[in-house]
Amino acid sequence: MLALKDQRCVACEGGEPALNREEIARLLGEVPTWRLHVDNSIDKLERTFSFRDFIGAMAFTNRVGEVAEEQGHHPRLITEWGKVTVQWWTHAVNGLHQNDFIMAAKSDGIYDELRERKVDAVTQASVESFPASDAPGWTDRGTSDE
To answer: Model confidence over 94-137: pLDDT tens digits?
Structure first.
């Protein structure tokens, strides 16, 4: 079976029940960084992602929004300086559906992707700024004791 992050959301028009506690517990095992949040008797998935600044939080928010549009399933996003809180649930079933777990996994993937990209950018900047072939600036290269 495909990993949750590789699955696509299916149309959910209602008429089917929300996931039961056993199904929720099983699927939570696949997205362990998420927690079950009950709000006005409605089960929701929730996670707060941390960032170094507001720009990082906005980049994540925008990317989650793009994927939500592609999948036709939309979260509650609360974007603040240094953090984004994401909640997934399905209005049509008044609770949780497999789509919510798919999107939670996709959100995790976006976060990991943005973090890796930032690390790669820092590594690249370091390599460009301090090539291994350059001698340190504090050495006396090219001088002699004559």
So the answer is: 999 999 999 999 999 999 999 888 755 555 555 555 555 555 55
> If you write DSSP's letter for every residue of 71-104 in order, what string do you get?
HT---EEEEETTEEEEEE-BGGGTB--HHHHHHH
pTM above 0.90, yes or no: no
How far apart are the C-alpha atoms of 47 and 34, rounded to whole Å?
A: 5
24: containing domain: 20-121
Q: The domain that contains 88 carries what CATH number? A: 3.30.1360.20
The total number of structural domains that make up the chain:
1
Nearest to 96 by CA among 21, 28, 19, 36: 19
CB 104 within 8 A of CB 73: no
